[in-house]
Write a structure and sequence with these properties.
- It is a single chain.
- This protein is α/β, with parallel strands linked by helices and about 190 residues long.
- The protein has one domain: Rossmann fold, CATH 3.40.50.
- The protein contains seven helices and nine strands, in the order E-H-E-E-E-H-E-E-H-E-H-E-H-H-E-H.
- Strand 5 and strand 6 form a beta hairpin.
- The chain is globular and about 45 Å long.
């Protein structure tokens, strides 16, 4: 059985964080990658657990050295997936990147064929996801429209993924993820 790099993506509100958490609880041979960021830690966040908190200079030096599988800038802060950390973790366990669709595709494009398995979590239908996002009540109507535009874009990318898991039943979705992980580990 070999260790495998998995990217698990899906639109906001689809439940990927919950699914990844349950998958990690059930499988001690899986670990979650830790990303780097230049933003300040929020209350309760720990360096090396929630993120690797870097200065802009440290981040840019690592970027120049090629140490990110992918990186991006959001709201004036950099975020990236550290190549060296991921490869070190893969020596011991399979690694999950819980990452947005754009980041997952960037990672895939930066690696050789077969070095990463892409799994997209999708809602049973767009209407149920729209209701879930609207039910949060934390965004303006304009922000909700922008988020739904992004959701449609992300769902259109599902054909570029190796697997698509419908999250219509939490236990069934976790079971499907476990089957995918087992199948990919068995491949030579």
């Amino acid at each position: 059985m070999k260790n495998v790099l998995f990217a698990i993506s899906g639109p906001s509100g689809v439940g990927k964080g919950t699914l990844v958490g349950k998958l990690l609880q059930a499988d001690p041979d899986l670990t979650l990658s830790v990303s780097c960021t230049t933003r300040a830690p929020r209350e309760g966040e720990k360096d090396g657990v929630d993120y690797f908190f870097l200065t802009r200079e440290e981040f840019l030096a690592r970027k120049e050295a090629g140490d990110f599988l992918e990186w991006d800038e959001h709201f004036g802060n950099f975020y990236g997936t550290p190549r060296s950390f991921v490869w070190e973790q893969l020596k011991r366990k399979s690694v999950i990147l819980e990452i947005d669709v754009v980041g997952a595709l960037k990672v895939r494009d930066s690696l050789s064929d077969g070095e990463i398995v892409l799994i997209m979590i999708v809602p049973p239908d767009l209407h149920s996801l729209e209701e879930r996002l609207a039910g949060r009540g934390s965004e303006s109507e304009e922000a909700q429209k922008e988020r739904l535009t992004r959701v449609r874009y992300e769902l259109d990318k599902r054909k570029e993924y190796d697997y698509v898991v419908v999250n219509d039943d939490l236990d069934k979705a976790v079971e499907r993820l476990q089957q995918i992980v087992a199948t990919e580990r068995k491949k030579a």
